[in-house]
UniProtKB/TrEMBL annotation, chains A, B:
Residues 42-61 bind DNA. Residues 19-79 form the HTH tetR-type domain. The keyword Lipoprotein does not apply. PROSITE patterns: HTH_TETR_2. This is TetR/AcrR family transcriptional regulator. InterPro entries: Homeodomain-like_sf, HTH-type_TetR-like_transc_reg, HTH_TetR, Tet_transcr_reg_TetR-rel_C_sf. It comes from Actinomadura soli.
Length: 229, 229
DNA sequence: ATGAAGTAACTGACCCGTCAGTTACCATAA
DNA sequence: TTATGGTAACTGACGGGTCAGTTACTTCAT
């Protein structure tokens, strides 16, 4: 992006100030890690992609792990921030769902490498942990959003609220999984219009969420329910 | 399992016939790969876990890749088989959903290492592909199940059927993602009763699926729908 | 000239895969 | 039963390639 238009001259792109170089390296590293995953990415790949020697890379980052950690931290911070902002700005839970989904589609489109890192390359156990934390943090925030109005309702007893909370927490992985899965699917099927995919996800999740407010609602009986008790 | 009770004697467990040893090695390799993922698992780990030399391992499997491929192939075949059987044996789509979810919970409980391999360790790109194929195969089968009755309905035009099909395919990643995500979440929260998690997933997905038969149904308007058009 | 930006060449460790050699087991004959 | 030879299961030790991280040196801006 910024690197070809940087130094103006034809082959004269070298000798950047420290901070700018660091930024560039982070960007390049993100792309490499995103494309190949942690283990298949070598420090030399990153250096070569930045048209720089490996040693220089090590003057900016003490180790491969540190570089990777910094990259993922950036991603997680960015994505969390976007989602939080979107959810906070949205009106009610339907708007919140639509906003979250839109953020995810946007992010996956704008930053495909970062997205790949988030959803596919969990090979580094440490990162798996971090991402699960991200999911849980988002989940909690979202459950809070859903329950905000109910919490403010003075008619609801503390016990009833707790039941609601537990239900909401159970719904979180379902929503989260559907969203991620839908985005990934859509990326692999570009012929499908994004609007359709988004709308489908919103409605699917919204209907599931509906349970939270309307209470239990079993599958219709018109189709031989479950065979066993 | 069978290895401690095998040779009877205290330290006398060695020298198995070819086929049995091969089975044991596959089992051990599955556990190792499942726990550490492909790249962090070394052939020596597998050999050591089987209380055998690395060289012997290489007499059964030509390479690390081949060993891994054989392991994953086993898993995919097993899981696909179970799911297909469950869906075929179930009555209608509600039963099908419940059956699929039950299979997934069972499998994750009985074979935690295999499960980990399926949902977490996608670091080998090749395996990621295989698993996406698995998902697509299952998705197609499931969409077929859902549409079976509609296809047999002579009143539905070919065009109407096609719309249904397209909708069904869009729903597949949503269902698939929710199911996997719910199982993974439940494994991390053992205090939640499995029945609750299962039931929640069934209802969530069932409601989402409901769209397929009832047609479009937008989120309720009681909550300031979406902000923009 | 001074120091920061940058590199080529190098080191050490790790790990896949191999090979020469050893051990347990089994068949057949004395 | 016991000796003998054949074979399949098994191992220790090492070659060879790869890759994270280092060192000693050069280039450029001010």
């Amino acid at each position: 992006m910024t690197d070809a238009a940087e130094g103006a001259g034809p082959g004269a792109r070298r000798r950047m100030p420290h901070a700018r170089r660091r930024e560039q390296l982070l960007q390049v590293a993100l792309a490499e890690f995103g494309r190949r995953g942690y283990h298949l990415t070598q420090m030399e790949h990153v250096a070569a992609a930045a048209q720089v020697s490996k040693a220089l890379l090590y003057q900016h980052f003490a180790s491969k792990e540190e570089l990777f950690a910094e990259v993922t931290e950036t991603i997680v911070a960015e994505l969390t921030g976007r989602l939080n902002a979107a959810v906070l700005a949205a009106h009610g839970s339907a708007g919140g769902i639509r906003a979250m989904i839109r953020v995810l589609f946007d992010y996956a489109t704008e930053e495909p490498d970062a997205w790949a890192l988030v959803v596919r390359h969990l090979d580094k156990p440490e990162v798996g942990l971090e991402l699960r934390e991200l999911r849980d943090r988002l989940g909690t925030a979202f459950a809070d959003l859903l329950l905000r109005r109910r919490r403010a309702d003075p008619r609801l007893s503390r016990a009833a609220l707790e039941v609601n909370e537990r239900r909401a927490r159970l719904l979180v992985p379902l929503m989260y999984g559907s969203m991620l899965s839908m985005v990934s699917w859509w990326l692999e099927h570009p012929d499908t219009p994004r609007e359709r995919a988004e709308q489908m996800a919103v409605e699917f999740i919204w209907l599931g969420l509906d349970r939270l407010r309307t209470g239990e609602r079993l599958p219709r009986a018109d189709e031989a329910p479950q065979a066993e008790g």
